[in-house]
From TrEMBL:
<feature type="domain" description="HTH lysR-type">
    <location>
        <begin position="4"/>
        <end position="61"/>
    </location>
</feature>
<dbReference type="Pfam" id="PF03466">
    <property type="entry name" value="LysR_substrate"/>
</dbReference>
<keyword id="KW-0238">DNA-binding</keyword>
<comment type="similarity">
    <text>Belongs to the LysR transcriptional regulatory family.</text>
</comment>
<dbReference type="InterPro" id="IPR000847">
    <property type="entry name" value="LysR_HTH_N"/>
</dbReference>
<protein>
    <submittedName>
        <fullName>LysR substrate-binding domain-containing protein</fullName>
    </submittedName>
</protein>
<dbReference type="Pfam" id="PF00126">
    <property type="entry name" value="HTH_1"/>
</dbReference>
<dbReference type="InterPro" id="IPR036390">
    <property type="entry name" value="WH_DNA-bd_sf"/>
</dbReference>
<keyword id="KW-0804">Transcription</keyword>
<dbReference type="InterPro" id="IPR005119">
    <property type="entry name" value="LysR_subst-bd"/>
</dbReference>
<dbReference type="InterPro" id="IPR058163">
    <property type="entry name" value="LysR-type_TF_proteobact-type"/>
</dbReference>
<dbReference type="InterPro" id="IPR036388">
    <property type="entry name" value="WH-like_DNA-bd_sf"/>
</dbReference>
<keyword id="KW-0805">Transcription regulation</keyword>
Length: 324
């Protein structure tokens, strides 16, 4: 049996199941003579007759019935597995890993929009600061925070970050009551530190000519969303991104400290995966969607800040940050 040709078995199973050579030929998309040839080859290999031929009617012999019982079970199992694979592929199941604050503040509010465009998709989102090990974990793609260029992986920037100091209106009023100079205000401000951010106070303050600021950071968080929340509550000034805080800026619960400081723009969030994953249609479609939405929202943030008379400068900093 191990020497039997799979093609011959396929033809035999179709004839036995459908009850005729013509129907089998139609299903297999071959000619009836090709089916008959495969049946003769199989009978020759086995040394037995599998069908009784009476005019145009075929009926299984005892040996044919025994073989059919085995093959029909095997082929039915194969068809079930094939159909399951096709259904899974067509349902577009996708496993995504995303940095926690970006997942909460940017991705999650946009997934309702995604579900309208792709209603049949099944998404699993894992919000964690840990990058995926694509060789050992079942993850389709990461949305990573950083400077790009991960060795051996495909990466595409999907969202540019726009960084600026911001605080609550009430806290800004306190700072302005002490001094009209924004640099003097920051020298005496409580600075909230997002410890995993790419741009932090120790870089930003000297870059903007703020000397003598209190660098002890009474509040330090490894989640940008927590830093932003504390700033909204009036506890200090946070150096953060519009990707995390845009809705708060739009609503007015956070405000820029001053128009004297340029907003830093840099490529902050990246779609990352092994190159082979991009061969999957689901990964490609999600990549196109998140890139399109990311560009749209970056443009909206730029326009909002420009309307506030803030200047924007593009920058890449030679320092690696971890997931926010």
């Amino acid at each position: 049996m191990s020497d039997l040709k799979f093609n011959s078995m396929t033809h035999f199973e179709a004839v036995a199941r459908l009850g005729g050579v013509a129907k089998a030929a139609q299903e297999l998309r071959v000619t009836p003579s090709a089916v008959s040839q495969q049946l003769r080859l199989l009978e020759h290999q086995l040394g037995v007759r599998l069908f009784q031929r009476e005019k145009r009617h075929l009926s299984l012999t005892i040996d044919g019935e025994r073989l059919f019982q085995t093959t029909t079970q095997a082929f039915e199992s194969i068809r079930e597995v094939r159909n399951a694979i096709v259904r899974q592929r067509e349902s577009f199941q996708l496993s995504i890993r995303v940095s926690p604050s970006f997942g909460e503040k940017w991705l999650a509010p946009r997934l309702a929009e995604f579900s309208k465009d792709y209603p049949s998709w099944n998404l699993r989102v894992d919000a964690t600061p840990n990058f995926s090990d694509f060789e050992t974990e079942v993850i389709d793609l990461d949305l990573r925070y950083g400077d790009g260029g991960w060795a051996g992986l495909y990466s595409n920037c999907v969202v540019n970050d726009l960084i600026l100091p911001m605080c609550s209106p009430s806290y800004l009023a306190e700072l302005r009551a002490n001094s009209p100079d924004p640099r003097e205000q920051l020298r005496h401000a409580r600075l909230i530190d997002s410890v995993k951010a790419y741009f932090r106070w120790d870089y930003w303050l000297p870059r903007n000519g703020v000397q003598g600021a209190r660098m002890t950071y009474p509040y330090r968080f490894d989640r940008s969303s927590m830093s932003v929340q504390l700033a909204k509550d009036g506890a200090g000034v946070v150096l953060e991104s519009t990707s995390i805080a845009f809705e708060d800026l739009v609503s007015g619960s956070l405000v820029p400290v001053s128009t004297e400081f340029d907003v830093i723009e840099f490529p902050g969030y990246w779609l990352v995966c092994p190159s082979r994953h991009m061969n999957r249609r689901a990964v490609r479609l999600f990549s196109e969607w998140v890139s399109r939405v990311g560009k749209r929202d970056t443009d909206l943030a730029r326009q909002f800040l420009s309307d506030k008379e803030l200047r924007i400068s593009f920058e890449r900093r030679p320092h690696f940050g971890t997931s926010m």
